[in-house]
Amino acid sequence: MSDTPVKQQSTAAFYGQAVASFAVAMAATAIGIFRLDANAWVRGFLAIAVLYLVTSAFTLAKVIRDRQEAGQIVSRVDQARLEKLLAEHDPFEKV
Question: What range(s) does the YiaAB two helix domain occupy (predicted)?
Answer without folding.
Answer: 14-66
